[in-house]
Amino acid sequence: MEYQQLIIAFCFYSLFVQQSQLTYAGKHLCPPPPPPPHEAVYLLQLKQGLTVDPNAYRNGCDSEAEAKTLSWNATRDCCEWGGVTCNAFTGHVIGLDLSSSCLRGTINANSTLKKLGHLQRLNLAFNKLSDFPLGNSISELSSMTHLNLSHSGNMIWEMQIPAVLSNLSKLVSLDLSWHFTEFQFGLTTFRSLLQTKPIWRYLSLRGTGMFGNISESQIFHLPNLQVLRLGDNPLLTDTLPNFHRNFSGSVLELDFSNTGIFGKVPGSIANLHSLWRLNLLNCNLSGSIPESLGNLTAIRELILTGNNFTGNVPSTISKLSKLVYLDLSSNHFRGSIPESIGNLTAITELALSDNSFTGNVPSTIRKLNKLSYLSLSSNNFEGSIPDIFANFSELSFLDFDTNSFTGPLPFSIATLTRLESLYLQNNSLTGPLPSNISGFQELQILDLSFNCFTGATPPWLFHLPSLFSLYVQHNQLTGKLPNELKSNYVEYSNIDLSYNKLQGEIPDWMFSTSMGRLDLSHNFLTGFEKQVWPSGSLQYLNLENNFLQGTLHQSFCDMINLEFLILAQNNFSSSIPDCLGNSNSFISILDLRMNNFHGEIPRFLPTGLQYLSLYGNQLRGQVSRSLVNCTSLEALDLGNNKLNDTFPIWLEKLPNLQVLILKSNLFHGPIGDLESEFPFPELRIFDLSCNGFTGTLPSNFFKNFRGMMDLDEENTEITQASNRTHRDYLYHVSLVIKGNEYDMGITSIMTSVDLSSNRFEGDIPNSIGNLSSLVLLNLSHNSFLGRIPAEFAQLQQLESLDLSMNRLIGEIPSLLSSLTFLEVLNLSYNHLAGRIPIGKQFNTFPNDSCCGNPDLCGFPLSKECGNNNESPLEHDDDDDSYFMSGFTWEAVVIGYGCGMIFGLLIGGLMFLFEKPKWYVNFAEDIAQHIAANKRTRQKKRRGLRMN
Ligand SMILES: *[C@@H]1O[C@H](CO)[C@@H](O)[C@H](O)[C@H]1NC(C)=O
Ligand SMILES: *[C@@H]1O[C@H](CO)[C@@H](O)[C@H](O)[C@H]1NC(C)=O
Ligand SMILES: *[C@@H]1O[C@H](CO)[C@@H](O)[C@H](O)[C@H]1NC(C)=O
Ligand SMILES: *[C@@H]1O[C@H](CO)[C@@H](O)[C@H](O)[C@H]1NC(C)=O
Ligand SMILES: *[C@@H]1O[C@H](CO)[C@@H](O)[C@H](O)[C@H]1NC(C)=O
């Protein structure tokens, strides 16, 4: 009854409204009429089908309070409900904005949504609606002008989109961005739709998984188009179209970022004379920028980042006087920056990084005093950094790193008051740092590393009130670190002063509670008698290569957050504190190489260890049995101590162990029997040299060392530690490589087995032939008997093979000549006989690679083989007489020097001296590693700035 009356009332009311719309023409005469009540009912029914869930969309809403439907209740006029807009005259619901309302649920064909026949604007963005064959119900909403379904959930549209949308004849704005449709669809399915929609002004299909060819879709043939966003659809391809005059005049924004657009930018781009924003980030565009770009005089944002553009930047760019944002980074632009860049006076963000720009930085940049972001990094700029910053009151990000800048730091940089990040690393800047500054009060990150700054560290360097990261490593700074700081300035969390010439003691404040990463390695610091350590947040402590000496007290272990502890190459002379192995220790990198630590290895060690190096100390006793619990251990270097133990065969089960170095200790006895089916499964560097090991090698010993078989170059880097929160730490080991000992960081593939200078005997196991990726093999100075296994011919990666000073007999297997990488071969002082194989590598080895085998003949020895091919002679094993014949021990010791610690002693018996291939790789690795770090950071920066 009541309902019927309402309907009648509504009819009258509609009549009234139709007339009033004619006559009122927008004047406010009466208070608006109430909306028709059934629309409220439809809305309430719509609400019933949905639930409010704060987790519905992660950026959508933080709390239920943000759900607009909460205010929907029958006691109030529905025009006052959250998100509902009514027509002021008719009272009809014409707008529904439920964006970011924490909604979850279904809007399907039965939903009452379709009954809101006057709806003009619908926004369901940022919700998590599912099963959403919305299509059919939406097609009934024929008044719709603006439809926004961006980030609204999963819809099953498939091919019906055009059909559904074609009913919405008034639609001018459609936003489907980030709609993860169940079926990706081709852009061409839009073609028919576009032909019926000449009035479209706004179309966003970003991140919809669309594919296909843009020109086929004729998407540009929309005469009223203002905004077109097709970004984040990598499968969309095509060249940019010719921008025809007829369709270009109204375009305000084009977004093709992260699509497969390729080819050149057409000169017709000039027809987009109203264009406000052009985003071509990360496409495959190439060629040079047309001069006509200068005609886009309305443009404010121009983003060409991450393409393959080449050539000079046209000087016409200086005509873009409204430009506020210009990003040309990560292309191949060359030439110098035109002076006329100073005309872009509106610009606030300018990024030219990662190109091949050259020349000086034009001083006209001084006119761009609205800049807040300026990046010229990773180019070939040279000359001094011009002193142009005096008026840059807004500059917060300044990045000139990785260029060839010389000269001193321009004074005006230190006056920048809003600066938050300053990157000047990887240049050749010189001179002392300014002794006084007037800016930098908001500076958070300061990177001056890899330059040539000299002089003392000025006090302000440690007094910047907002700074948390200070990178000054790889300079020539001298003097002492300040002892005391004003207490409120101790908020630094990251200081890197490594590779300078700093002297004196390390002040206590550096271990303050905020410090997370402290690197003072490679300086001239002294002392270290700290009694009390703060239990701070320090995670990374690197004091490598100083002159520190003293004792590590128990309280050292109070630094309970420590993960990286590197004290290598100092003069610490205590025992290693037992407490390091406390169960709450997080230490994963423990590097105490080359000190004077004495006593025994602690009975318990941190179970999370990944790298443990105690190389070059005075440690005695046994290998700590607790290592068996360190299942993450990747590298263990105990070389050059006085450890007296048998072979720790119990390490065979450590699943990640890649490096095991026990050389130059007092290890003794036989290797023992392997238990596992796959012992030492990841082992790549295995060094037992210069010990007292005895006995025969088990015949299957090398059979299942999978780490040295069929290495795939991609997957073998020791990277676990680098996945941590800190910059990479290179594992260091000391290795004899082709007769020279190197202290080197391991990052790339290297495989080595060194059992030299022990007392192993018996046959060389054939199973060595399984180690198909082995690069270095040294079995010299043992008592191996028998023949050289023919299986050695399978060691196709081998670069160095040393079998000298054993008791090997028989002929040299002729297949060894097929080892094409072999650079170093030493078979001298055995009992080999017969003809030396000829061909390939063997022709390159010098004479002494085979000397001391009286029964060998042929090239390179001067002894020629008889024509009758005399059979090899068996030797009677008379060692003494053999060793006395023809050479002295001294020559041998020089070459292999057990206990030789570092340096480049060239072995007396070694001949080819080239840079080993690994070593070269290693240097390249560092360079790549630096570059990779940079890239990551740049990406991060860019990521922060896009979207
Ligand atoms: C719509 O309602 C009808 C009748 O209640 C039902 O049979 C049908 O399954 C519903 N459709 C959807 C998509 O829920
Ligand atoms: C769609 O709605 C979202 C969220 O309110 C908004 O950010 C976006 O700009 C809207 N799209 C259009 C075309 O207005
Ligand atoms: C451009 O507009 C003119 C005049 O309206 C028309 O004659 C011409 O055919 C149009 N060109 C295209 C490519 O649509
Ligand atoms: C970039 O362009 C150069 C020269 O035109 C070409 O050799 C190179 O392959 C291109 N690189 C990419 C990633 O397209
Ligand atoms: C090694 O230890 C054993 C027993 O613990 C001892 O007999 C031997 O003398 C030690 N060797 C050396 C060289 O110290």
From TrEMBL:
<keyword id="KW-1133">Transmembrane helix</keyword>
<keyword id="KW-0677">Repeat</keyword>
<dbReference type="InterPro" id="IPR013210">
    <property type="entry name" value="LRR_N_plant-typ"/>
</dbReference>
<dbReference type="Pfam" id="PF08263">
    <property type="entry name" value="LRRNT_2"/>
</dbReference>
<dbReference type="InterPro" id="IPR052595">
    <property type="entry name" value="LRRC69/RLP"/>
</dbReference>
<protein>
    <recommendedName>
        <fullName>Leucine-rich repeat-containing N-terminal plant-type domain-containing protein</fullName>
    </recommendedName>
</protein>
<feature type="transmembrane region" description="Helical">
    <location>
        <begin position="893"/>
        <end position="913"/>
    </location>
</feature>
<keyword id="KW-0812">Transmembrane</keyword>
<feature type="domain" description="Leucine-rich repeat-containing N-terminal plant-type">
    <location>
        <begin position="38"/>
        <end position="87"/>
    </location>
</feature>
<keyword id="KW-0433">Leucine-rich repeat</keyword>
<dbReference type="InterPro" id="IPR001611">
    <property type="entry name" value="Leu-rich_rpt"/>
</dbReference>
<keyword id="KW-0472">Membrane</keyword>
<dbReference type="InterPro" id="IPR003591">
    <property type="entry name" value="Leu-rich_rpt_typical-subtyp"/>
</dbReference>
<dbReference type="InterPro" id="IPR032675">
    <property type="entry name" value="LRR_dom_sf"/>
</dbReference>
<dbReference type="Pfam" id="PF00560">
    <property type="entry name" value="LRR_1"/>
</dbReference>
<dbReference type="Pfam" id="PF13855">
    <property type="entry name" value="LRR_8"/>
</dbReference>
